[in-house]
Amino acid sequence: MRIAKNQVISISSVILLTMGFSPSPGMASDSIISDYRGSASITQGVAQTLESNLFECENGRSRIAGIGEIKDSEGQIWTVPAENHFATAPKAIDLYEECANITPQSLAKVDEASVPVAEVDSDGEEITGYIFADNYFELYINGTLVAVDTVPFTPFNSSIVKFKVKKPYTIAVKVIDWEENLGLGTEDNRGKEYHPGDGGFIASFSDGTVTGSDWQAQTFYTAPIYDLTCLTEVESKRLSETCTIEGTDHGEKAYAAHWETPSNWMAKEFNSSSWPQATLYSEDEIGVNNKKAYMNFIEKFSGAGASFIWSTNVVLDNQVLLRYQVK
Length: 327
Ligand SMILES: [Ca+2]
Ligand SMILES: [Ca+2]
Ligand SMILES: [Ca+2]
What we know:
There is one protein chain. This protein has three helices and 21 strands. The chain has 327 residues and is mostly beta strands. The chain has one domain. The strands form six sheets. Strands 1-18-15-21-11-8-9 form a seven-stranded antiparallel sheet, with no helix packed on it. Strands 5, 6, 7, 10 and 14 form a five-stranded mixed sheet that branches. Strand 3 and strand 4 form a beta hairpin. One calcium ion binds next to loops.
């Protein structure tokens, strides 16, 4: 089985080379799935589109946010960029969302009192959260899905949420760096057809909780990978630090690494002790200086002491799960 696949991929590499295509930067033509020894499941190439677009922008432009699925070499099917509840879950209230013409200059122009309160504990403390995600988040409090982002891909938006909960409580967030080229981890950007976009997540809460290095972040989908030997693992860290993050016009044969998400990863009692700590990123690294959805409310982001977080690779890791316990 494995040998047969190995041969198929080797033959296709040979055909590519003999037809005069040159491999992408960092793409090793002998990088084959059967030689990979890590814990991920590997897919190669573009996914089949299941949903062509989850979101239409009424005012202005947005990137197409599709959903796809792709089979790995063992026959297992993976949803890309990730399974999500965008279509069915309660949406967060927009702080800033251009497509809906919600563009306040500052928090003073936001009617915070009208934000609905999700009841996790009826006798709990009422807490307000301010969230900016590149590109999409789903927020769980003690395992209850409180709200999801209103814009899956672009334009960049920001959100306000309220919930009632008793301490200690657990925040769990699924964040997705969305992709145009489903299964390949890339988008048409910066003059390249297959440019790997980046992620980033920042939030503060009215009880003083902020995103930082004491949060945990584990990656579950990494792409594009052009040479599987660049993927490594140290303890429970899934590393792609030596993989190229350069864009290319020939990224259609990229590999992707997938790990199964535990079904109860968002539960309060889920044991995430093996997950790595979150990696911090600066505002410059995430590139928010020109994004009003962030800058107009910066007092609730970096101004509140929050930091951008993600897994160890903010470019290649596209589905990341975050957890934090508020004491
Ligand atoms: Ca968003
Ligand atoms: Ca990415
Ligand atoms: Ca992105």
